[in-house]
Amino acid sequence: MTGKRFTLDTNILVYALDRQAGDRHIAASRIIDQAALADCLLTLQAVSEFYAAVTRKRLVPAAEAVAQARDWLDMFQTVPASANAIRAALTTAAAGQASYWDALLVATAAEAGCTAILTEDLADGGVLLGMRILNPFAGDANAEQVARLLTPG
Asked: Which residue intervals of the chain are DSSP H helices?
């Protein structure tokens, strides 16, 4: 393993369809296009949360959200949460290190060999359950690290 395997948080997926998100929409669309060619996997949780968020916020019609989620399920390797990931998430959330759902996404991806997560929802530059947290919208602060992840090979 190259140490470059990573995952995308739900917010990246949502921004990719939210045309009202301006620069974040453009950046998220680019990130997903590049991630599909890199060593990126998606948690089934993130895909599920994506559908729930975009339909709840009425960003797109349900049929479009379904089609997009299905496309991502075909494009990316996916991974479900295991009992061990749930245990780690419970411990992490109880310790106040992250919300349960964020901890579960990170624990699931870490168990699948990911070393980083692209998200704006966790402490940028930190480490959670062994995974680097990178905010791809933070500008120059993370641009080089994010670019390395998104480069195939």
From this structure: 10-17, 23-35, 44-56, 62-75, 83-94, 100-111, 143-150
Helix (H), strand (E) at residue 42: strand 40-43
Domains and CATH numbers, the chain: 6-150 (3.40.50.1010)
Q: What digits encode the pLDDT tens for the residues 75-128?
A: 999 999 999 999 999 999 999 999 999 999 999 999 999 999 999 988 888 899
pTM of the full predicted structure? 0.92
Tokens found for residue 39: 């060593």
CA atoms of 112 and 43, how far apart (whole Å): 9
- Measure the CA dihedral 62/34/102/140, to 10°: -120
> Residue 134: CB partners within 8 Å, gap ≥ 6?
116, 117, 118, 119, 124, 125, 142, 145, 146, 149
**Closest Cα to residue 116, out of 29, 10, 9, 24?**
9
Give backbone dihedrals phi and psi of 66, rounded to 5 degrees, phi first. -60, -45
SS3 28: helix
What is the pLDDT of the chain when averaged over all its residues?
A: 93
| Token pair recorded at residue 53 | 């968020």
Two tokens at 107?
A: 């624990």
